[in-house]
Each structure stands twice: as C-alpha cells, then as structure tokens.
C-alpha cells in the first residue's frame, strides 16, 4: 500500500501545523483532527492511508482512540503511528498493544518520522 493520505490527530495546533507543513512538503495529503470525535468524522469522510496519533488529548485519549480504530473492521487496515511526548517504555508497549504499528516520541525527529512512514510503504 502506498501512503498518500495522512490523518493527524493531535490537540496541539502547533503540532498540527508543524506535521501538516512537513508532510505536505513531502507530497502527502493531510487532514487533521483535534479529538476523537473529529477523528471519527474525518475517517468517515475520507479513509486515510495512515494515522499519526497523539496520546494526551482531552476526552478520549490516543490509546483509547487507537484501540477503537484498530478494532473497527472498516479501519483496522489503516496503520497508526503514535506521536507523543509519553516517552516511557511502558507507554510504547501499551500503545503497540492498543493496535499502533509504530511509536515515536516528541519532539519529533522529522527524519525518523519519514523513515517510519516509508517503512510502511
């Protein structure tokens, strides 16, 4: 599967702008969501090829949202990369157990993020 469309789920407008700018310059089509409700609305509108998921968000957190998406038959095939400030090994393991395909900590290393996206292609 070639990744072209990316959904970024993050409650930080700064992070959304940074990642959107980075990915659009690399040729990706980017949509954003600031919470779980927004994310499901975006998923229903246009299924992405990849989701970049923050963990710490108001309401449903990224771990819960990742679990919901990865267990939904409509979206289970969409890879999720957790992009979060939670940098403990237990957080990474928990994120992977919820259905994430990979895990990267903030502040994001752009080369690392792009390499992880490329590895999914």
Helical content (DSSP H or I, runs of 4+): 40-55%
> What order do the helices and strands follow?
EHEHEHEHEH
CA radius of gyration is 13 Å
Which secondary-structure class do the elements indicate? alpha/beta
Compute the average pLDDT. Answer: 95
> What proportion strand?
15-25%
Main beta sheet:
5 strands, parallel
The shape, in one word, is: globular
Individual helix count? 5
Distance between the termini: 6 Å
Report strand order across the widest sheet: 2-1-3-4-5
Could you list the spans in which at least 5 consecutive residues all have pLDDT below 50? none
Number of strands: 5
Describe this structure in words.
The protein has 121 residues and is α/β, with parallel strands linked by helices. 43% of the residues lie in helices and 19% in strands. The protein is built from five helices and five strands; from the N terminus they run E-H-E-H-E-H-E-H-E-H. The chain has helices at 13-25, 36-45, 62-70, 89-97, 110-120, and strands at 5-9, 29-33, 50-53, 80-84, 102-105. A five-stranded parallel β-sheet has the order 2-1-3-4-5, with helices on both faces. The chain is globular, with a radius of gyration of 13 Å. The protein starts with a strand and ends with a helix. The mean pLDDT is 95.
């Amino acid at each position: 599967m070639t990744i072209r469309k990316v959904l970024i789920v993050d409650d930080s407008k700064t992070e959304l702008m940074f990642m959107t700018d980075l990915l659009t310059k690399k040729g990706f089509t980017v949509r954003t969501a600031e919470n779980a409700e927004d994310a499901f609305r975006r998923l229903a509108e246009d299924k992405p090829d990849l989701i970049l998921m923050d963990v710490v968000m108001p309401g449903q957190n990224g771990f819960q949202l990742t679990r919901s998406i990865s267990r939904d038959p409509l979206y289970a095939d969409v890879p999720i990369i957790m992009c979060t400030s939670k940098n403990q090994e237990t957080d990474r393991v928990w994120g992977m157990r919820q259905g994430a395909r990979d895990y990267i900590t903030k502040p994001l290393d752009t080369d690392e993020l792009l390499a992880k996206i490329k590895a999914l292609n």
